[in-house]
Design brief:
The complex is a heterotrimer of chains A (218), B (663) and C (143).
Chain A (H helix, E strand, L loop, with lengths): L1 H11 L3 H4 L9 H22 L3 H21 L3 H25 L15 H23 L14 H10 L2 H22 L10 H4 L16
Chain B lengths: L2 H22 L7 H23 L5 E5 L11 E5 L1 H24 L6 H20 L3 H19 L6 H32 L4 H9 L6 H15 L8 H4 L5 H10 L1 H11 L1 H5 L2 H24 L3 H21 L3 H29 L4 H5 L4 H4 L1 H14 L6 H17 L8 H30 L14 H16 L4 H7 L9 H31 L10 H10 L8 H4 L7 H6 L2 H6 L4 H48 L5 H26 L1
Antiparallel strand pairs in B: 1-2
Helix pairs in contact in B: 1-2, 1-4, 2-3, 2-4, 3-4, 3-10, 3-15, 3-21, 4-5, 5-6, 6-8, 8-11, 8-13, 10-15, 11-14, 11-15, 13-14, 13-20, 14-15, 14-19, 14-20, 15-18, 15-19, 15-21, 18-20, 18-21, 19-20, 19-23, 20-23
Chain C lengths: L3 H20 L3 H30 L5 H31 L14 H23 L5 H8 L1
Helix pairs in contact in C: 1-2, 2-3
Classes of the chains: A mainly alpha (218), B mainly alpha (663), C mainly alpha (143).
Chain lengths: 218, 663, 143
């Protein structure tokens, strides 16, 4: 890390003119790390969407999301990075795993994880990737982020911005979260008359909808 | 009030009466009869007043232009000459009589309000035709008459005969009206005006470029309206209407409109010798043919219808020899006695309960049961047969005299050949007319057999009207001196040669018929009555057609050939053809109805098989396309999303490319 | 650091998410793909926020704030999404998105519709055909 910082410090002193001379063939240390982590992230993401084992997909997702968290750190947005780790890696993926279990997803390789739409999906995805990469590269070929200045994503900076400029959206968001919470409960709650065949097994599951449906509904 | 105002009121009053009658017919039934009778009565009084003021003097002209109508102006114009005012009196008087008669005759008819209103409207239209000084305004009245005639003939629309008869009347007259309209336009194009006075001026100055063409085109309309050969076929069938309607429309007014029109525009026709010869031939064929057909008819109203056609033939014959005074004179007397004939026939039919002469001939005591009808009809038939001193004699002699003058070259206006044609046909028809009049009289009133049950007393008003009309039938002819002055000074007095000839022929015709009748009656009495000889097909057909709205009690009788009929013996083998109207209906059916029906079938076939194929294809192709598109509607959200994203991608690429190209 | 690196990474992740969204059959895997796409966007937001803060001295930190919001929204979304998936699974016994085809138009619908259309057409034709068979024409034909 220190070596990276010195390298960054060295580049920080250069003027704006010098920025244009920076090429892709002489990457800085941060860039190298970023690239490596990025490769890991992309690889994990690809595995997430291609693996035939559902639980593995969730685990590869953890890797990909963790990689993104590292990228945040490299971009000096440390608060976001920790939030990413906490919420995504910590809760979302756990939720997804719960979902997999509750829907009785098969453990091990399942033969039909991909729909018949796959070739078209691949074409669309490749086209999307090509277009986006082309546009992004074309537009930001020479743009340089000077990471050697004051840290832009520390908890202090982010908190100040969030609670000075973004208070109202923040509060609104909390209402949204509440609504989502209520909605999720309402959606997954099992009503008594809906399922007359299940009182013996479904009676305790009045609140959380944690039990899957009875066999008869299959 | 000025004469012009009075003249305007004459057609307007019946029109208002008709509108009020239509509006109040259901709301206030009590007003219907006054509204039916009073406007024509007032119109009669006013028309008489107008006639008295005009008094055969120079024509009164008045015109107002409602709105500019382009190069040839159309004006609301009056042209009151001696002909117009006298004919208007006749029309209004006959209409009043018919309305009064109808109050009795149709007193129990549920559709009487609309009937009376239509008769009033019809009267108004005819008066408009009579008074109008502008051909387009005249045409309006002409066509309103046509449509009223359609409605009135179809009064008993419950019966298929009345329906088809009304359609036939309408279509046949329209067949003539189309060339008529073209002729009017051609006339206006040649003379630059629709005003009768200006047209006559232009014709006087030799301003007519295509006289024969125009005259022939106009003649087609006249033939249709005045029931001249070969467009007369609608008139016998039109007897399916109520009897007063027959009296009004098909005897005194509507059919007279054609004759009156020619009389008004006679210089136009006289400008073309060819048109006059055509007119003469048309009149001759019409006269002789219709008289023969009248001799063979069984339905009393059809006899009268054919006689109307024949008498109209006399009028056109007078016009063919360029004597409009004689034509209008005959129009007047004929209007009177033919209205009387029809109305009396209505009374007779009411008493006998049948239209069929055969049935009447087997019914006794009709003479005493319908005494008023008997006497007035006798008068009218004598007038029809043109025996002196009845009115028909004078007017017919005026026609024949004019023909003789033309034949012997005493007048310049008409070609001699037209005169000869008219004279010959007129004399032959005089004989035949007397014959069928006698036959009608004998068969209707001198029948022998059981009496029929009484259908109820005749309303008083009917008999009163009969006697009112009997007066002019008897005496109108004596007014030839006065009318001659009114009509521009030409003498209408009978000439000796033709009078003796025609009267002699008429007497011969009557006596021969009487003799034959005696013979056949004796013959028939000797033979037992009952289901008789097998009958030819056409006879049954004819008789079926003859049965009109008044369903006769003994339709089976009418369908049998009756050996007591003098007409059968007189006509011999011709009888069959004459009874069928010389198969002109069949000819018309072959010539027009069949092709039209075939064309209709063809159109229906084309519509069904060709046009609808396109329509079907118009439905099937989108359906196929829809099915194809529906294949993509899988219900799979992923597919939809794929297409959505692909589309968005294409749009994004397009936007980027456009921006790049612009930059 | 070149801005292109995070931007390209973000684009790639997004495309991978698109692929997963369109190709995966299990609804939970589809949700994972959605998470990937959201994260791609987040990465973009953060990178551009840092770039703007350093070069333009922007102190608003809109990108980071929006990233936080997005993360919160994603959490809410995953909650609701999972609830829906569970509900579907409970009702249908399956959470495969390509089997939820109730909105598709089946052949039975098609047949019923076609029959109705043909019946309407036949009624039209009957109505149109009637005038040709008028009594007058029948009488004419009889002669």
């Amino acid at each position: 890390m220190t070596a990276l910082t010195t390298a960054a410090l060295a580049t920080a002193a250069r003027s704006a003119d010098a920025v244009q001379h920076r090429g892709f063939l002489s990457p800085t240390g941060v860039e190298i790390v970023f690239l490596l982590v990025g490769l890991v992230t992309v690889g994990a993401a690809v595995l997430t969407v291609t693996t035939r084992q559902l639980v593995h997909a969730a685990l590869w997702l953890v890797v990909a999301l963790g990689g993104i968290a590292v990228e945040y750190l490299l971009l000096t947005a440390e608060f976001i990075a920790w939030v990413q780790v906490l919420i995504y890696v910590g809760s979302v993926v756990v939720l997804l795993l719960f979902g997999l279990m509750l829907t009785r997803a098969p453990i091990g390789r399942s033969p039909d994880t991909d729909s018949g739409n796959r070739p078209v999906a691949l074409a669309v995805a490749l086209a999307t990737a090509a277009t986006l990469v082309w546009v992004v590269v074309d537009a930001f070929r020479t743009t340089w982020i000077d990471l050697d200045q004051a840290v832009q994503g520390s908890t202090e900076v982010t908190g100040a911005a969030l609670f000075s400029s973004w208070v109202l959206p923040f509060e609104a968001l909390s209402v949204l979260l509440l609504a989502a919470l209520v909605g999720a409960i309402v959606l997954s709650r099992r009503t008594g008359d809906e399922d007359p065949g299940a009182p013996a097994s479904g009676a305790p599951a009045s609140g959380d909808g944690a039990t899957p449906g009875p066999e008869g509904t299959r | 009030m000025t004469t012009t105002t009075l003249a305007v009121l004459v057609p307007v009053l019946p029109l208002l009466g008709a509108l009020a009658g239509l509006a109040l017919g259901r709301v206030a039934p009590g007003f219907v009869r006054p509204l039916a009778v009073l406007p024509p009565l007032a119109a009669t009084v006013l028309a008489a007043l107008v006639a008295a003021r005009q008094h055969g003097g120079p024509a009164i002209d008045a015109a107002t232009e409602l709105t500019p109508t382009g190069s040839v102006p159309v004006e609301l114009a009056l042209h009151l000459d001696g002909f117009a005012v006298v004919v208007a009196v006749l029309v209004a008087a006959v209409a009043t009589c018919v309305q009064l008669y109808s109050t009795g005759y149709l007193r129990e008819d549920p559709r009487y309000p609309s009937y009376a209103a239509l008769v009033s409207l019809f009267t108004s239209a005819m008066l408009l035709v009579v008074y109008s000084g502008d051909l387009i305004v005249l045409l309006v009245g002409w066509e309103v008459m046509g449509i009223c005639s359609y409605f009135l003939v179809g009064h008993y629309w419950e019966t298929p005969e009345a329906r088809s008869a009304s359609l036939k009347a309408f279509l046949v007259t329209k067949l003539g009206d189309v060339p008529f309209l073209i002729g009017l336009f051609a006339l206006a194009a040649d003379t630059g005006s629709f005003r009768i006075t200006r047209i006559l001026d232009a014709v006087g100055n030799g301003g007519l470029d295509h006289p024969t063409l125009i005259a022939l085109l106009l003649l087609a309309g006249v033939a249709g309206k005045s029931a001249q050969f070969p467009l007369h076929i609608w008139l016998p069938d039109a007897m399916a209407g109520p009897t007063p309607v027959s009296a009004l429309i098909h005897a005194a007014t509507m059919v007279a409109a054609g004759v009156y029109f020619v009389a008004r525009l006679l210089p136009v026709f006289a400008a073309s010798a060819a048109a006059l010869v055509v007119l003469a031939v048309m009149a001759a064929v019409t006269m002789a043919g219709s008289a023969l057909a009248a001799l063979a008819q069984d339905d009393i109203k059809r006899v009268l219808a054919y006689s109307t056609i024949g008498q109209l033939g006399y009028m056109t014959a007078a016009l063919a020899v360029a004597d409009r005074s004689a034509a209008v004179f005959h129009l007047l007397t004929h209007g009177a006695f033919k209205a009387l004939l029809f109305l009396a026939a209505g009374a007779l039919i009411h008493a006998a309960g049948t239209n069929s002469l055969t049935a009447m001939a087997r019914t006794g005591a009709l003479r005493t049961r319908a005494a008023d009808a008997y006497w007035t009809m006798t008068v009218a038939l004598l007038a029809l047969a043109a025996l002196p001193p009845f009115s028909g004699f004078f007017s017919k002699e005026a026609v024949l005299g004019a023909a003789e003058r033309a034949a012997t070259g005493h007048t310049e206006a008409a070609p001699a050949v037209a005169g000869w044609i008219v004279l010959t046909a007129g004399l032959a028809t005089a004989l035949l007319t007397a014959a069928y009049a006698t036959r009608l009289w004998l068969r209707a009133f001198h029948g022998q057999g059981a009496e029929r049950p009484v259908h109820g007393p005749q309303p008083l008003v009917i008999n009163v009207i009969l006697w009112v009309l009997a007066a002019p039938s008897l005496a109108l002819g004596l007014a030839y001196g006065v009318l001659g002055d009114w009509f521009g000074g030409a003498s209408l007095a009978p000439t000796l040669t033709t009078s003796v000839l025609a009267t002699g022929l008429a007497l011969v015709g009557g006596l021969v018929t009487y003799g034959t009748w005696r013979h056949t009656t004796a013959l028939a009495a000797a033979r037992p009555r009952g289901p008789l000889e097998p009958q030819p097909e056409s006879e049954a057909e004819m008789a079926t057609e003859a049965l009109t709205g008044h369903a006769p009690d003994d339709g089976d009788l009418a369908e049998r050939p009756d050996p007591a009929d003098p007409g059968r013996l007189l006509l011999g083998p011709l009888h069959r053809h004459a009874a069928a109207g010389f198969h002109l209906d069949a000819a018309a059916r072959t010539l027009f109805v069949r092709p039209t029906l075939a064309a209709a079938r063809l159109a229906a076939f084309l519509d069904r098989e060709v046009v609808e194929t396109y329509v079907r294809a118009g439905a099937a192709v989108p359906r196929l396309l829809g099915a194809a598109v529906r294949k993509s509607q899988t219900g799979n959200a992923q597919t939809y999303l794929t297409v959505l994203l692909a589309g968005a991608l294409v749009l994004a690429v397009a936007a980027v490319l456009v921006t790049a190209a612009g930059a | 650091m070149h801005l292109a690196y995070p931007a390209v990474l973000s684009a790639l992740l997004f495309a991978i998410g698109v692929y997963g969204l369109l190709a995966r059959r299990n609804a939970i895997l589809v949700l994972m793909s959605v998470e990937l796409m959201l994260n791609a966007v987040n990465l973009n937001l953060v990178a551009f926020d840092v770039w703007l803060s350093t070069t333009l001295r922007d102190t608003l930190h809109g990108g980071q704030a929006l990233t936080l919001f997005t993360i919160a929204l994603a959490a809410a979304e995953i909650g609701i999404g999972l609830a829906i998936v569970l509900l579907v699974y409970r009702n249908r016994g399956s959470s495969d998105v390509d089997r939820l085809r109730d909105t598709a138009e089946t052949e039975a619908d098609d047949d019923a519709e076609a029959r109705a259309a043909e019946a309407a057409l036949a009624a039209d034709e009957a109505r149109v055909a009637t005038p040709y068979d008028s009594p007058a024409e029948k009488a004419e034909a009889a002669r």
